[in-house]
Structures are given as C-alpha cells and as structure tokens.
Design goal:
By secondary structure, this protein is α+β, with helices and mostly antiparallel strands. It has 5 helices and 8 strands. It folds into 2 domains: 81 residues, Alpha-Beta Plaits, CATH 3.30.70; 84 residues, Alpha-Beta Plaits (2-Layer Sandwich).
Length: 197
C-alpha cells in the first residue's frame, strides 16, 4: 500500500464548490481507497492505494467529484513521500513566523511550476518568494490577503496550482507520519509559530 495526500482546489470558499468532508471521505472509499482521513474543511485528505500514480488518483478523484457532485474541481495528489519532501525543502521556514503568512504552492507536475516565477516581480521588501524543485513558497510578513504576490498565488495562478498555508502543510505531514505512512520528522525543520504581540 502506498500513501497519498490529496489537495482539492478552491472548495468550501464562500458558497461555491461545496464539498462536505464526510462526502469526500465516502467518495474516496467508493473509489477503493483505504486509511482515509480528512483535515480541516478546505479539501485535504490522506489515503492509501494498492497501485496507481499520483496523477492517476488526481484524475480519478476529480472525475468522481464531477460525477457525484456535478462540480469541476481540480485535484492535486502527491505521494506522502513527495509531500514530505516539499515540506522539508521549504527555504522560507523560520521559527517565529506566522504560519498563515507562509504559503506553499503545489502542482501535479513540476513542468507546471515555471509560470509561478512571475510572482517574484510582485514582491514588496517585506516579502520573500522561492521556487523549489516541485513547489513554490511565498512569505508575506504583512499578511497574504494584503499582498499582490499573495493574491497572484491564491487567485491568479490558474487551475494547475493549489496552495496551502504552512500550518496545514505541516499538519498533513504529521498526520501521515502518525499513521506510519512516511518518515517525516517535524523537528528536522523550522516551524513558524504565531508571533506574540
């Protein structure tokens, strides 16, 4: 059995694309997946499968969402090992940083990553942006929603990209670790924590 992390793009934001997490778990179970667990209400799941590539599972989940809920929702799937590598690679992870101000952008295939490089041109002096091997990272000290770079990553990067804040990325890795699916040591990287006033 191989473990995977599924990220649904743009669900449960406002009234559009409503996907109850109980419904998502049932959908994944009906697709034959096992060990299913969801995190938060923003379309995050971990599961196990006997076979298939991450791209295969992304397509299967997206098609099932369309068939069952009549929703056109892009889905990105990473193996648990791939997901942990993306988290461990984060060059912007520093202790003391507010995790809600640090975003990770995920793509299904690394070939879809280069267009995100243009976000670097939108940075202010208090912001940082780095391209990784298979993901991109953005830190906005004054908050993501106040940032042109943040807006570009969240809303203008297109269907091929989905983002998660740093706290969610860490929790997904830790969840996979607790279930014994991937060797991830949270202490091996810096953990941004909420800044105190």
């Amino acid at each position: 059995m191989t473990a995977f992390v599924a990220l649904l793009r743009g669900v449960n934001v406002g009234k559009a694309n409503r996907v109850p997490m109980a419904e998502l778990r049932t959908l994944l179970r009906d697709l034959g997946y096992e060990g299913i667990s969801t995190l938060l209400n923003s379309g995050n799941a971990v599961f196990q499968a006997q076979r298939g590539t991450p791209a295969d599972h992304a397509s299967a989940i997206s098609c099932a969402l369309s068939a069952r809920l009549a929703l056109d929702i892009p889905v990105i799937v990473k193996s648990a090992e791939e997901f942990a590598a993306i988290v461990e690679e984060n060059p912007l992870a520093e202790a003391g940083r507010d995790p809600s101000c640090l975003l990770v952008a995920f793509v299904q295939d690394a070939s879809l990553l280069p267009p995100l490089a243009r976000i670097g041109a939108l940075l202010t002096p208090s912001e940082q942006f780095q391209m990784g091997r298979t993901a991109a990272y953005l830190y906005c000290a004054d908050g993501i929603l106040k940032s042109k770079a943040g807006e570009a990553m969240l809303r203008k990067a297109g269907r091929d990209v989905t983002t998660r804040n740093w706290a969610t990325a860490l929790k997904l890795c830790e969840l996979a670790t607790e279930l014994g699916w991937v060797a991830f040591n949270p202490a091996s990287i810096e953990h941004p924590t909420q800044e105190t006033p």
